[in-house]
Amino acid sequence: MASLIGEMSVSGIGSAVSVASPEVGLVFSASPTFAPANCVFAPSTGYFVCPTITSNGLTFTRMFRLLDAANNPQSKPSEQTVAIETKSAIMGTLTFNERTSGTSTVAIDRSDDMTLSGIQTTKHTLNGRAATKIDGTMSTALGPTHVTTNQTELTTNIVLPNAKAGQRWPQSGSVQIDQTTSVTPNGQQSFTTITRETITFNGTSVVTVTMVTGFGTLTCHFDLANPAAPSSCS
Hints:
The chain is mainly beta.
């Protein structure tokens, strides 16, 4: 069970999302590992509720449930378990000490609902949604800059890599990120950007990221196996 839940945060997805959205990458990097064995089944909801973890100013909560083919929750894993649904939340404030400009703070409020299906087969498929709110004050040499971000993520049919078949990267599927960011530099007039980024997987380490903004559409290719390599964009 632990390995299946671990698949739902497979590194290839986290790396790709971090490339497209550093804000969400910040959350991925701060997330601790949950041990399913420590989670307690609640018959009233059908979920296993995991202990709350607080680390570096952030509080992490998680629950999961085991589902049969009729979408009924189960109290323990069995041959009838065909899917796992997880619900997670992160809330709190991160603090950074900048060497030259002072202290920056970032308040995070994130929730997600993800389902891994096909777990009795070799084709494990991930779907789900997430919402993130970030409110930060960044310390710069020119004074504090206030940044707010509202973001939604839609994960669609990501076929996870099968390690037994020698696969390392998601085989197919996509993550769509819709984001609205407002920036107010040191009390000056704020400006807002609205973007939609779609990350597409194809079984290799190279992912396609398509970004749509008010200025048009830009498509880039990133090699997750070689993050230092320059991206190819058009």
